[in-house]
Design a protein that fits this description.
By secondary structure, the chain is α+β, with helices and mostly antiparallel strands. The protein contains 8 helices and 4 strands; from the N terminus they run αααββαβαβααα. It has one domain. The relative contact order is 0.16.
Length: 197
């Protein structure tokens, strides 16, 4: 968080907590409406392991774009006990040059050990502390960050580790995604061994 005044930091965190509460209340309404009108997930939602309405609005486009570019996400949006930062994490890798670009934007990229998951060398997180409680500004920052991620042409298309679970619950007639999930994780483990994560 770039604010130096402790009172202003505390006030911003309070506003971010309130914003998260409002966002989640709106998402619950959107989710119910979606289930009533169109409960069949799209191909992208099967890969995301979530209906788009279940993803916080400030990260919806960013997460969708990450998948399109070949980055498998796991969780996204408000993060942490006091919602003082935004994060997108998942099973993907980001090269050093792109990490520098993201850092120049006021965000950081952490790997498993830096996130407190020392035995997981294929998980990563992009995060930043917003300096405003304006959802549009937070969304714009996410969209800008994701715009610098290079498309991944190597390996299989990104897929969430929970995709098979989601498919079984919401689209049981859809063919299994387990082989793609296994291939994607094998691809990431090979990248980690090469030091590319």
């Amino acid at each position: 968080m770039t604010l130096e005044d402790p009172f202003k930091k505390k006030e911003l965190i309070k506003k971010l907590n309130q914003l998260r509460t409002r966002v989640h209340a709106e998402m619950e309404i959107e989710g119910k409406r979606r289930m009533e009108t169109s409960p069949e997930p799209t191909e992208n939602e099967l890969r995301l392991a979530a209906f788009i309405e279940w993803i916080e609005p400030q990260v919806r486009e960013a997460v969708t774009e990450m998948y399109r570019k070949g980055y498998g996400t796991k969780s996204s949006g408000f993060y942490g006990g006091n919602n003082s930062f935004q994060a997108i994490d998942g099973y993907f890798f980001i090269d050093d040059e792109t990490k520098k670009k993201i850092k120049a934007m006021g965000a950081e990229v952490l790997n498993g050990p830096e996130m407190g998951v020392p035995l997981n060398d294929i998980i990563m997180q992009i995060r930043f502390s917003p300096d405003t409680d304006d959802l549009g500004s937070i969304k714009k920052k996410w969209d800008t960050i994701v715009a610098v991620l290079p498309p991944r042409q190597e390996g299989p298309r990104a897929i969430c580790d929970r995709a098979e679970e989601f498919r079984e619950e919401y689209s049981p007639d859809y063919p299994s995604l387990q082989n793609e999930i296994d291939e994607y994780f094998s691809f990431l483990r090979n990248k980690a061994k090469q030091g590319n994560v």
